[in-house]
Amino acid sequence: MNQSEEFLQLLTECQGYLFAYIAAALGDSDLANEVLQETNLVMWRKSDEFEMGSSFSAWSFRIANFQLMSHRQRQLREKLLFDQALVERITHSAQERSESYVARLKQLDHCISKMPARYRDVITRRYHNGESLRKIAEELQQTPNAIGQLLFRIKKKLSECVSRGSREATI
Questions:
Q1: pTM (2 decimals)?
Q2: Which of these, 17, 23, 24, 50, is most buried using a 10 Å CB contact count?
Q3: CB of 122 within 8 A of CB of 150?
Q4: Residue 112 C-alpha from the chain's centroid
């Protein structure tokens, strides 16, 4: 994968948490989409300034924060909507939550990768592919109740693994 492709992949992966961060700061999803697009344009234009291997999350939040400040300056010229201190507190809180969310997603991916292949298969079929318990059970020659119980145990173990930040997910 070349550097442009890697950058594009990082840019794509960050869209969800950047949108959440910007939407929390603005309180308006339409404005958040607008600012997110502006942020994406700036990140794309400055892609050569990003050092591969460094924290893309931190870099993208910094750019998003500058775009939020720019948006607020435009609003101030039009009309004051929120107290700046309140907006900064909301922005800080949203960034912390988004970073925590990203870290937990990475930990979840790691925990899933440590599970036996059979369990990963059941999780993928149920939650990624949307297959019914009945269909999974039929193909695995088990009852839907048995598959439901298995999924319950898997989710409990994954939750514990993510919560403790463990590098092992054993079931």
A1: 0.48
A2: 17
A3: yes
A4: 16
